[in-house]
Amino acid sequence: MGLDLALVRFSGQTAASAAFGTMRDRVGPDAPWTHEVALVEHHHNGRIALRGTFAGHYVDVDEEDHVSQPGAAAGALTGGLIGLVFLGGPVGMAPGIVVGAAVGAERGKATEVEAEPEALVEELRAAVPKGSSAIVLLAESSHVDAMLAAVDGGRAEVVRRTIDGDELEALVASVGETPAASSGPQRDGDPAAGAR
After folding, report:
1. Does any domain span residue 169?
2. Mean pLDDT, to the nearest integer, of 133-157?
């Protein structure tokens, strides 16, 4: 059995976020699809930001935020030593630390940054034009129907298709390293808490 994938595209990097807020206000926070969507921004420089729920997992991807903390630490130490030796003692050490940390953070090893759902990000990069944003939902068809009913059709372009088989497995696997999403606030608290 497949799931439906809906992508609601908007012109403007933050337009999807604003539209989602309006849609959620219109239908109320208890509509199931409001807890199953992710918001995508495709920046003019080609980088993607993705936040929300996808395939039951919470995703938080921001390609603008790829820094290596170990790289920054090593760069700061190296820069500080270079500044100390070549730029005249303690006075040269401070700028050396700052420049070294910035260079080290940017050039840190790829294994030192958080794992991301690369297959999903590449699909979204191809589907959402630069300078645009989108609401994305992978869910059963009734949830997708409900979300699309809340869309202001004049401002958005909708793409919808059924995903199954290998493609569905690949998308779900791409978010497998991310944490499971919350089902939202519970009136009676966490039902699993009483079982502990």
Report:
1. yes
2. 90
